[in-house]
Amino acid sequence: MGERGAKSCGSIYVAADPGSSAWKLAREKMLGVGMDPNKQLKRYAPMSVTTQSRTSQGKVTVTVNVRGGVAEGSHQARILTVGSGSTKASDWAEAKPWATATRRL
């Protein structure tokens, strides 16, 4: 991909609100190199993860809630079960940004 292609498909994330000085500076610099801040400038929200577990009929279901982070790509979660003398790891579970991954153990 050439320089022109990279400019048209890349995204810039700013950990600030639209209209802030950081946002305005990023917008100005993007315009200066031929990028489109209306499409490519995005607000970054720090990622947070919460988990919930539920036991039913001897099986444990763990739900991982992912919020924030970047919108492109994917988020994955892996559940570690720690017991006395052993640790088990689940397979990786995919979660779309701002979504939930559920894995039955």
List the helices and strands and how they pair.
Layout (H helix, E strand, L loop, with lengths): L2 H7 L2 E3 L6 H12 L4 H4 E3 L1 E12 L2 E11 L5 E3 L2 E4 L2 E4 L3 E3 L4 E5 L1
Parallel strand pairs: 1-2
Antiparallel strand pairs: 3-4, 4-9, 5-8, 6-7
How would you sum up this structure, described in words?
The protein is an alpha+beta fold. 22% of the residues lie in helices and 46% in strands. It has three helices and nine strands. The protein has a three-stranded antiparallel sheet with strand order 3-4-9, with no helix packed on it. The radius of gyration is 20 Å and the shape is elongated. The N and C termini lie far apart (42 Å). The model has no long low-confidence stretch (mean pLDDT 80).
Name a few traits of the molecule:
single chain, 105 residues, alpha+beta
Tally of alpha and pi helices: 3
Which stretches are low in confidence, meaning pLDDT under 50 for 5 or more residues running? Answer: none
Broad shape: elongated
What is the string of SSEs from the N terminus onward? HEHHEEEEEEEE
Structural class: alpha+beta
Average pLDDT level: 80
What share of residues are in beta strands?
over 45%
Please state how the strands of the largest beta sheet are arranged side by side.
Answer: 3-4-9
What characterizes the major β-sheet?
3 strands, antiparallel
Distance separating the two termini: 42 Å
Q: State the total count of DSSP E strands.
A: 9
Oligomer description = single chain
Q: What is the radius of gyration?
A: 20 Å
Helical fraction equals 10-25%
